[in-house]
């Protein structure tokens, strides 16, 4: 067997061909891998979260919302904050047969474990559905611009809406025009005295959007939950985690119902009606001898040919060519 890659390079700190096999004594000159956490630790006597014994917390009467504050913010919340987090989590827990429930049920139909289905339901949260991370970082970005440029929050809200009006993570849409739940969440936050700059800024965003939108829009649940959680001191990422996991509880309930009401699905069982297919018409498979008559290379010799070919590929669904992905330049990202 010949040398693989550059493993015979004299610059390497070891001889690959003569390296030791089996159990090797630890290299004391190199730092060993180990987890280090300031969130929690556990021994045979107790579990400690941010310095607090979790059993003692429960014995004293603290609840789930309190522990979430302790885990994510290392502090015991005010009673008003604890009530507000409970309010948000209850509304986040179930949303009918939306994406998380559907995913949980699909996974359940394969006769899996409940934990698999409930865990899979969390995968529904992205930068459109449940886009709490994207929403929160957007708010932070524009509020920072307001301070740097000396503009009012009203002016910055108008700029934000102008640049993001059609984005799914705006937190303002036509989804809640008949349901007052989102606006009632802001009202509850204000009543409890926990509303801050994020709720105030989101209200300005709603006003700006209603001025320029061609259709009726209002605060939706993404905007209400996202802004409220950030006023409670949670980061965009922790908001994402807390509310997605809250929805996983409902994912478990949907798993149970799916198992109780529907049969399991076997591999190859589900059929796809041709009426739901809009690809190329059925066609005979050419023999290998005829292959050259049908095979076509996707190579272009001029920019014009490339552009024509690219447009054709974008019109063909299922290729990925029509998907636009914005990837942040790491050189411009704040550390």
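Q: What amino acid sequence fits the structure above?
A:
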């Amino acid at each position: 067997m010949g040398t693989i890659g550059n493993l015979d390079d004299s610059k390497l700190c070891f001889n690959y061909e003569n390296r030791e096999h089996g159990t090797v004594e630890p290299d004391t000159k190199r730092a060993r891998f180990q987890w280090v956490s300031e969130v929690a630790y556990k021994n045979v006597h107790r579990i400690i979260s941010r310095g607090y014994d979790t059993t003692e917390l429960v014995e004293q009467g603290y609840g789930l919302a309190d522990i979430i504050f302790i885990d994510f913010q290392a502090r015991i919340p005010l009673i008003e904050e604890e009530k507000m987090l409970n309010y948000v989590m209850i509304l986040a827990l179930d949303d009918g047969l939306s994406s998380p429930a559907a995913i949980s049920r699909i996974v359940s139909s394969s006769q899996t474990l409940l934990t698999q289905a409930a865990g899979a339901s969390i995968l529904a949260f992205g930068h459109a559905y449940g886009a709490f991370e994207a929403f929160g970082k957007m708010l932070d970005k524009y509020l920072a611009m307001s301070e740097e440029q000396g503009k009012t929050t009203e002016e910055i809200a108008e700029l934000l809406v102008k640049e993001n009006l059609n984005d799914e993570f705006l937190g303002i849409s036509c989804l809640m025009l008949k349901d007052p739940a989102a606006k009632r969440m802001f009202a509850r936050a204000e009543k409890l005295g926990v509303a801050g700059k994020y709720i105030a800024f989101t209200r300005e965003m709603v006003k700006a959007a209603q001025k320029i939108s061609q259709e009726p829009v209002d605060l939706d649940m993404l905007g209400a939950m996202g802004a409220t959680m950030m006023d409670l001191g949670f980061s965009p990422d922790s908001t994402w985690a807390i509310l997605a996991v809250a929805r996983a509880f409902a994912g478990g309930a949907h798993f149970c119902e799916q198992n109780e009401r529907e049969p399991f699905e076997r591999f190859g069982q589900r059929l796809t009606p041709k009426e739901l297919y809009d690809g190329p018409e059925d066609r005979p498979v050419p023999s290998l001898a005829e292959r050259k008559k049908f095979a076509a290379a996707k190579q272009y010799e001029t920019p014009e040919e490339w552009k024509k070919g690219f447009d054709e590929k974008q019109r063909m669904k299922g290729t990925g060519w029509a998907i636009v992905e914005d990837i942040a330049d790491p050189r411009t990202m704040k550390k």
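Q: And what stands out in the fold?
A: The mean pLDDT is 91.
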